[in-house]
């Protein structure tokens, strides 16, 4: 119920415009968003790197409405890659296709993301572009784009996909991606999906997540397991130990500002951890999805509002 409410709120343009411009909104979102500028993102990355963790930087934004906006978003990503290189940051980037103009013109988005992946591939050391997964209307088209980009020999290993464990189709999608050696981030899924295509119960999503995790861990390809779910993480660690899967062959991924204690515990225990750091002026939809995931977050925000 609460999650549906916040996902709906995340799509409301009027509230979004108001919130993103207000100083109060920016202050409240700071728990999950590193700031609005590239400099904020760099500072947050340096702090996380110092704690022994990798980073994926996400310049927040989705559903741009014209090609110019999309090109502007892409320029920011080019600058981020340059900063990663210049400052020797341990970081890659995550992009959303609707932020790169997917809804405006698929060819524009394909060109933009293609250029970013080519830039990442040409960097020394090579970098990596993760294509985030959005709602189900985009699933097939997003996977097609990742397959195409990975198919160019110079790009191999520099572009990856995201699979959502709540979708029934995910096991087959994983099979197709693994057949090409494409790196996968596995998450539970953050959107509201219908019961004819997605598991609705948390227990079913969790069960599928664990099943898919085991497939990924046995695949020999380097993957990211994106979850804060302690129970799933415990089972993953036990599986890795039982199957003698090297800690260097996969990574846990968590969001900036969420379960920092668990992130650090995993590092201390010798596991790879990557923190997803979002930044930028268009933080509202991301922030609303995070609130919907946990009632305590909404409570925290309301308390701060009145403080
Ligand atoms: P779940 O929601 O079951 O939570 C398990 C526990 O984690 C909670 O009990 C709580 O302790 C903690 N927790 C989870 N969310 C929290 C929050 N917001 N605040 C505080 N504590 C919280 N989704 C998607 O559809 N496409 C994508 O591309 C991505 N990308 C992505 C990258 C990374 C690095 C992560 C970690 C997640 C994503 N997601 C995503 C989001 C993902 O699908 C999912 O919505 C959230 O990670 C929450 O699910 P959990 O696996 O954490 O489990």
Layout of secondary structure:
Elements: H1 2-10, H2 13-21, H3 23-29, H4 38-50, E1 54-59, H5 67-86, E2 91-95, H6 106-122, E3 129-131, H7 139-151, E4 159-164, H8 170-179, E5 183-187, H9 202-217, E6 223-226, H10 230-242, E7 250-255, H11 260-268, E8 273-279, H12 284-293, H13 295-306
Parallel strand pairs: 1-2, 1-8, 2-3, 3-4, 4-5, 5-6, 6-7, 7-8
The chain binds dihydroflavine-adenine dinucleotide (FDA).
Dihydroflavine-adenine dinucleotide binds at residues 132-133, 162, 164, 187-191, 226-229, 253-255, 258-259, 276, 290, 293-294, 297.
Report on the structure:
- With 307 residues, the chain is an alpha/beta fold.
- Helix content is 51%, strand content 14%.
- The chain has a single domain, classed as Alpha-Beta Barrel (TIM Barrel).
- The chain has helices spanning 2-10, 13-21, 23-29, 38-50, 67-86, 106-122, 139-151, 170-179, 202-217, 230-242, 260-268, 284-293, 295-306, and strands at residues 54-59, 91-95, 129-131, 159-164, 183-187, 223-226, 250-255, 273-279.
- The chain is globular.
- The two termini are 27 Å apart.
- The model has no long low-confidence stretch (mean pLDDT 92).
- Bound molecules: dihydroflavine-adenine dinucleotide.
- Residues 132-133, 162, 164, 187-191, 226-229, 253-255, 258-259, 276, 290, 293-294, 297 line the site of dihydroflavine-adenine dinucleotide.
């Amino acid at each position: 119920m609460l999650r549906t409410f916040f996902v709906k709120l995340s799509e409301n343009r009027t509230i979004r415009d108001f919130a993103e411009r207000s100083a109060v909104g920016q202050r409240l979102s700071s728990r999950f968003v590193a700031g609005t500028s590239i400099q904020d993102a760099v500072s947050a990355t340096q702090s996380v790197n110092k704690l022994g963790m990798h980073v994926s930087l996400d310049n927040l934004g989705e559903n741009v409405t014209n090609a110019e906006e999309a090109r502007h978003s892409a320029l920011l990503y080019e600058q981020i890659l340059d900063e990663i290189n210049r400052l020797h940051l341990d970081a890659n980037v995550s992009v959303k296709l609707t932020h790169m103009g997917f809804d405006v013109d698929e060819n524009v988005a394909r060109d933009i993301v293609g250029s970013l992946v080519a830039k990442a591939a040409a960097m020394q050391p090579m970098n990596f572009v993760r294509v985030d997964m959005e709602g189900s209307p985009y699933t097939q088209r997003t996977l097609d784009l990742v397959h195409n980009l990975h198919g160019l020999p110079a790009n191999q290993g520099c572009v990856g996909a995201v699979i959502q464990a709540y979708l029934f189709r995910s096991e087959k999608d994983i099979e197709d991606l693994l057949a090409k050696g494409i790196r996968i981030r596995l998450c539970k899924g953050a959107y509201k999906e219908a019961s004819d295509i997605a598991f609705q119960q948390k227990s079913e999503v969790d069960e599928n997540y664990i099943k898919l995790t085991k497939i990924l861990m046995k695949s020999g390809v380097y993957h990211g397991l994106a979850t804060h779910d302690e129970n799933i993480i415990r089972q993953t660690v036990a599986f890795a130990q039982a199957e003698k899967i090297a800690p260097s062959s996969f990574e846990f991924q968590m969001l900036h500002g969420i379960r920092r204690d668990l992130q650090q515990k995993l590092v201390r225990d010798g596991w790879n951890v990557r923190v997803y750091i979002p930044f930028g002026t268009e933080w509202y939809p991301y922030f609303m999805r995070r609130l919907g995931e946990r009632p305590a977050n909404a409570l925290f925000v309301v308390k701060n509002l009145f403080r």
